[in-house]
């Protein structure tokens, strides 16, 4: 897979994982889960099993570039893409794709998210290799991975496929994207059998993706073309800083992939979780089948479906007789929340942003 390049995207703050994830110390550089390695280190190790360091790029913001690079000694600085500010995935992926395409015109690209967890590592490796083999045969397609639905989630996106469209490689044709359905729809999708969770694990030929940008987001394509022309020259940062902040904030799915390019889906079971909420942290960390997951100094009695995440080594956290609760303790802030309402942490952060005396805790 010498012509395959991975781009790891690691620019988000992770507000739903407050108070552990902060603006100055985001989730990707923190040792979440049952490991001393940070999320970005775990992601690098996963991709590194498949690719050489020179084939791995990383995209982040100036606030986090040095912090992240310091945790990844194998990362080449010329492969570090620093976005002037976050503009969602369409500009970020377009920028990275354009840079790789300029340097390696025949490149295939896979996008990788710094905060994703794959419990079945061997299955992940095999899925990437199969995706690569399929995209080599179908360079005019976008390759996606679809995960078998484990429960009717309202926090995830879905992909609908045509079950009768399976080709000789076992890939299915994608009909449409569905973003975060309500629980009724999510239950229907699970029963239907032709819907899959969308982990946004895509693979494409760089030249093909840039052509899709030209067709579907011509203004963004024009700006990216100007940036890419200056890349690896003395004008690179000046032109990037002038053009990039003006891009529309929009996702790749909405701006390009939902507009009709042909997509194939490879079904898989990868033990996947998007580590973007305390519920997902609990699902990965809970190992004993008793519904309780703890990290740090913690004791629970008669607890059910409980997460205790304690970062303060000088304090013991105890939970007795509670259900559906997450207790998150840091040296300067404590979060106690119904775990089933973990998406509301973002609302809490937004409220704190509006009160000047509370911004020090963000």
TrEMBL record:
InterPro entries: ManC/GMP-like_b-helix, Mannose-6P_isomerase_type2, NTP_transferase_dom, Nucleotide-diphossugar_trans. Residues 296-351 form the MannoseP isomerase/GMP-like beta-helix domain. Residues 6-287 form the Nucleotidyl transferase domain. Pfam families: ManC_GMP_beta-helix, NTP_transferase. It comes from the Bacteria. GO terms for biological process: GDP-mannose biosynthetic process. GO terms for molecular function: mannose-1-phosphate guanylyltransferase (GTP) activity. SUPFAM superfamilies: Guanosine diphospho-D-mannose pyrophosphorylase/mannose-6-phosphate isomerase linker domain (SSF159283), Nucleotide-diphospho-sugar transferases (SSF53448). This is Nucleotidyl transferase domain-containing protein.
